[in-house]
Amino acid sequence: MKLDLTGNSPINQQYVSWLNQIATELRSPYTDLIRKLSEKNQGAIDWWVTPMASRNPYSCSLFLQICYLFLTLRIVEHKHPLEEVRVNSYALAVTLKKLLSSLHPQIRITHPQKAMMIIRSFTAFLRGFFASLYHTGNQYLFSKLFQNTSRPLSGNPIVLIDTFVYANSFSGEARDRHFTGLLDFIDDEDKKEIFFTPTFYKIRNYANLFKKIRMSKTNFLLKEDFLRLKDYVFALTHCLRAVGVTIPPSTLRGIDVTPLVREIYHESICSSSSIEGLLKYRFARRLSETKVSIRLIIDWFENQEIDHGANAGFRKYYPGTMIVGYQGYIVPKHYLCTYPAAYEEEHRVIPHQIAVVGKGLMEPAKEFYPHLNVVTAPAFRFQEVWRERKYLPDNKYFTILVSLPILFKECNDILNVLYDALRHPKIQGSSRHGYRFWIKHHPANTTAKIKKNFGKLWPKDFEFVSGSFHDLLEQSGLLISISSSTCVESLSKGVPVIVLGSLSGLTQNPIPSQITQDIWTLCYAAEDVVTAIIKYSTLDKVAHARHQAVGAIIRKSYFEPITKKKVKQFLCL
User: Fold this and answer.
1) What is the pLDDT of residues 497-521, one digit of tens each?
2) Is 510 within 8 Å of 485 (Cβ atoms)?
3) How far is residue 249's CA from residue 264's CA, in Å, rounded to a whole number?
4) Backbone phi, then psi, for 86, in 5-degree steps?
5) What does each C-alpha distance from 253 to 28, 388, 533 come to in angstroms?
């Protein structure tokens, strides 16, 4: 048997199940590994803004590679016939050879040559540096060309809210996707002291963006208006300083993983997120020097590199100001960085308080820090889960709403499985058999980009739809997605969900384990998806009523309603 652990090919479904079990088992040991690395570099901001220090699985593959290592060992322990293991890490190959050479010398480890890994690391370094140079250069230039014409700061203490801005965030007036409706509950006088500080995501046309920001009636406080040229130089030279960060010998469960840690650290040290984190760190310093008075800071908190930099800066330069980390989403279990650790508080790189959007999310947030200060806050992005139903499904069809996530790889994983499901005899010619597929992409992407990245002839059964997610959801009988909070939104409205699991890596399932699987199904292959579609399309009235009852419980547990009182509490008004 050959085992492909490059992440480019599917692996046996039993092994995928083992892989996810191993990931659950290694959550705490891995966090402890990063704790020990952090203690060696506790005073170095250049360490804290690295993907490895933040435990960000999307920009650092260390956790996945360690899970691959333990998966291989488990397969060998169960005496499964293994002839070859393919990996895309030289360090992982060296580690496996060392562990298997004496007892299982017949197992061949196929891997890239060391020279190729050096070239790959250097290429990643250059790609990250020049991408960061492009974005920071554009931000600096166009912030100067389009001067700040907004209302000047009054001198009164302000509330600073960290959010993300996308290319389509300005359709007319600014539309914030992360704190939707927050300003609707604020008095006009209080609005004057609330400022949004944006992080730009997937922006190409900075000239157009800054023009719209400057014309907006929304209060924006841009870091570009305070940073100096030497701050950009400081951030961009992070790559040079990060090379000198200490990576000591490291073990996990008695196995030496030092080669893996060092290889992956050097592959990811020049990320655009790290440089953005350092700019936010310096932004806090410049605000302090300008005597800007801040009474409350709200961080859109995913505990990534950007968050580490921003929180380290504000906790250093605004030591008396409360920082609230707002987790306005449902956290997938393997999205490790979103679970704060006690050592991060010791080193002052996380907020003072974490605000989650439902009572059912409070205890899980404390997994690595039992004394974490956790509160609930309004579920701004999800306020429509509480609205009265406007639509009913069309009886002519069983409508399947496909909610695509922000990452193109995950989009392709979903679309490829559905592409195969369409060709199944039970689904083939779905429009004629009463099935229809509505495809809704993430606002940060476009239809053209989704089709281009898919790379195959676009099936006529895949119909792109736009408009309100909840309008579409109420007209659907089933949602299919992966890693997205829309899965739990759907369940809260009594609409069943298929979560597509990864056949090559870890499954980022956002559905809390407490929610009954009667209303959702985890699928890996097209055959599983077809079975689930047929199951949910043939539910009787009793089952639908049961799902509605489950949805009501989910709403109360995971989506805090938005009221004026709760918003004022959140903003300490």
Assistant:
1) 999 998 889 998 999 988 988 899 9
2) yes
3) 14
4) -100, 130
5) 11, 52, 42
- Our CA angle for 212, 214, 220, nearest 5°, is 105
* Half-sphere exposure of residue 176: CA atoms within 13 angstroms, side-chain side: 25
Kindly state the helix (H) or strand (E) to which residue 200 belongs, with its residue range: strand 194-200
* Rounded distance between C-alpha atoms, residue 153 and residue 195, angstroms: 10
Strands (E), 377-457: 398-403, 435-440
Tokens encoding 3:
């085992």
Measured distance CA(485)–CA(559) in Å, rounded: 11
CB contact at 8 A, 510 and 487: yes
pLDDT of residue 431: 47
Give the DSSP H/E element, type plus range, for residue 198.
strand 194-200
d(CA 445, CA 450): 7
Q: Rounded CA gap, 336 and 166, in Å?
A: 25
Local structure of 351: helix, strand or coil: coil
- Residue 97 and residue 121 in contact, taking contact as beta carbons nearer than 8 Å: no
Model pTM greater than 0.90? yes
Contact 64, 312 (CB under 8 A): no
- Listed in sequence order, the residues at least 6 apart from 520 whose beta carbon sits closer than 8 Å to its beta carbon are 487, 491, 496, 497, 498, 499, 511
For residues 358-385, average pLDDT: 96
Residue found under tokens 């250059």: 126
Half-sphere exposure of 277 (CA within 13 A, CB side): 30
Q: Tokens for 350, please give them.
A: 């996380």
DSSP string, 489-535: HHHHTT--EEEEPPSSS-----S-TTS-TTSEEEE-SHHHHHHHHHH
How many helical (H) and strand (E) elements, i.e. helices and strands, does the chain have? Answer: 21, 19
